[in-house]
TrEMBL record:
InterPro entries: AAA_16, Sig_transdc_resp-reg_C-effctor, Tscrpt_reg_LuxR_C, WalR-like, WH-like_DNA-bd_sf
UniProt signal peptide: none
Domain (HTH luxR-type) ranges: 867-932
GO biological process: regulation of DNA-templated transcription
Pfam families: AAA_16 (PF13191), GerE (PF00196)
Record keywords: DNA-binding
CDD domains xref list: LuxR_C_like
Protein's organism: Streptomyces arboris
Domain of life: Bacteria
Name of protein: AAA family ATPase
GO terms of molecular function: DNA binding
Gene3D superfamilies given in the database record: Winged helix-like DNA-binding domain superfamily/Winged helix DNA-binding domain (1.10.10.10)
Amino acid sequence: MHSPLRLYGRSGELAILDGLLARLWQGDGGALVLTAPPGLGRSALLREAAAAHRPRGPVLYATASPDERGLPHSGLHALLTPESLLARLRERGAARPLLVCADDAHTWGPASRTALGLAARGLGAGSRVAVLIAADDGAAFAGLPALRLGPLDEDAASALLDRLTGGGEGAGSHVRRLPGVTEGLDRVVRVAEGLDPVVRAELLREAAGNPRLLTGLTRHLTPDQLAGRTPLPCPLPGAEGVLAAHADRLDGLPAHTRALLLLAAAAQEHEPAGAGADALLLLRAGTRTGLPRDFLDGVLFGSAATEGFLQRAGSRVHFSYPLFARAVLHHAPPARRRATHELLAALLAETGDRAAASAPSGDRPAPLASLVQLACAAPAPDTALAARLEAAATAPYPHGERSSALSRAAALTTDPPLRSARFAAAAEQAALAGDPDRARALLARTGAAGEQSASPGLAPYVHGLLALRTGPAADAHAALIAAAALLGPYDPRRGLDALLGAAEAAWVTGDAPGYLEAMGRIDPAPYDRAFAAYRAGMCAVLAGRTEAGHALLRQCLDPMNPADPAPAALLRAGVAALVLGEVAAACRTGARALAAVRTRGPDALLPQALEHLAYAELRAGLHAGARAHALEGLHAARRTGQPNSSVHLHAVLALAASVEGPAEACAAHCDAALAGAGPHGLAQPATLATWARARADLAAGRSEEAAARLGPLVRPGPRQGHFAARMLAVPCYVEAAVLAGRGAEEAGELHAAVAEFAGWTARTADPQAPAQLARCQALLAQAEEADARYAEALAHHDRAGGDFERARTQLLYGQWLRRRRRTREARTPLRDALVAFQRCSARAWAERAAGELRAAGEQGPSVRPATDGALSALTPQQQRIARCVAEGATNREVALRLSLSPRTVDHHLRNVFAALGIRSRTELARLLGPEGP
């Protein structure tokens, strides 16, 4: 298939070229050097500029010819053929602008490069000639304006991959058509049903943002391989051309430089991706191979250059472009490459003998690194080396390093069942390292479903772990239950983790029987007392034996070995504290769990640790801290590829925004949480997000909408909210229903909800629950009893602390007093509520309290609205009514929102129209809209 060329991810570079051409067409020339390693599209950009200019004037386009590189002035000859020279003379006579494009100019001879550079430097205003030069680097054209191309970002590379596999045209902002130019992609559209996600991730990882490499890799795969029906070859074919183009630059380098580049490339093989190489290791290796010490010191620790290949960052040495390292290894003779790996293995083994294997850092000099280097040197499968790698990978190394070692062990293994088991173990470590794409790619190499494995159940276990963080939770529950049955007889630790994962999956879906099934399969005998108490306590609570369950859960609030507890044990203790309502203990334990995860890992657990801490802080009224931790957790979830964790964290952020605002942030987080929760069956974040939006409605005075959202969550029925969050939403539901005027028509449901909440309050240790219960009872009480109930609620708040919940009770109390014409008494609780809301940054709630104060006759500057022109002539009550009507509320809705009668609203609205000189609600909406005051 031949199709128009499209450029992806180059909008900024194209804009710069457009600017150069625009100046040329206005009569001003100039020059620009496009520098980039091979494959990043510098030639495509030149062709784009040439295609854009041809309708306006002639183009001189020359590219390097491999056969003529050694000829003097070959570059100038390519530019100034008789035809080109004639065209240039004609152009001078016609005075049309000329564009000169010199592609791969770094390969031209010195004389040609010098002449071209001198000519380009002489161009400027009025010259009517522009020169575009494409080169590997700009050293040969120093002094000219230069633009360096970087790799494509993930979105652009993904759009290009869609194009290459017939999956779509890609994102519009990343694509630009080049009219009249063809790509020569003769095997583009081959997979009608789409590209397998695992294959997609592996191709994007391997290409590293290089469009030419991505094209080559895709072209060499079969339709079945692209669709995921057959395994990918390892290594992936199609990279040879790009690597060879990179390696061409090596031939002209000094021998010392080439030797050091080979050492640096080989030394990266045992490091995590992107970590570079250890400069001290390179110094020792270079000294051992006879490289001059002054050369090594200059490159590794001084200012000596390596032709732009290497960069230093502290004690680490990095290649300026990742493919350079692969090109160096690919270009080296096999015998020399093996000798380099063996030398590094020996040096690392010497260091490992003197250092502890458990030293914390990616720079750890330990035996595992030595074994990885030996694996790189192995010319053929090696059973003994594979066994040594597998044994070493059980030590407490970072999970990413262990995954790399296990995958190399698998590659050295000839026995298919053992090979599959080692790839599955490598996938598990990649998942724990927060790299789910790599984990799926490794799982794809374990063999077909049902194929024999030395570790039955391990691959399903890893599939279940990935589904727990990235897929439907019900799928994760089923996969982990099945994996636990296979793992139990020979791998009790993973069997336990599988059952705990299945229980977690059931919890987030709101499946209490599924949770009890998973936890019921765990034999607590081999584990410590705290774990046994946790298991029994959680099962008792979900089975309805709350008192017994709470007694058991109190035994696991402080995990065993408090000096150095495992992160998972601390997270379980935090869950127990939240179930008990011990929110202060949950905050303390959550902070300890977060510190443990940061110190010991795994990286995949970081979003969950931040989520648990943020939720505990929400329960404690620490909304700013919860927001900060949830935002960090959201970034960590995206970085580690855990969309389900992102859903939970969006729900937490929605709850924080329902207090702090703005309303747009709350709505956006709610939408994000619900969009992810629905397809994956995540009932818990769906309940929290709905509660958050209802609480934001309450803050804005939209009690009818809030009651409609919360009613299904707290009532019995199929749409009932998550069992762990239902009771938390009851106070908001009662408040919304009463303020919306549903107290009489839904009295039975409201009293039933409050009775259930009273039972929960008697069992929980949550310090806010008694105050919230008294507040609900006050809302439903008769006039003579409500006063006492509000006083009781405020007394409970005094003991519990927390500005936000106390301020909500004061707001409702003041509103109740004002509604009963006790205006002077109402001002004190309303003023206290306003100050408390301001103190905890609850802006929307503070505005609601200020409105109530204005209605009660308060005229201080802290409650005066920002008005302008005629609006300042309205009374506070008229202003509130006008704003509600401008938002589209009916008179009845305004009456419910402001606790007035419809007749009073109608009376005030007529006065508003008269004062503002308008005659309709439409004119009022226009006056108070974005263009009005």
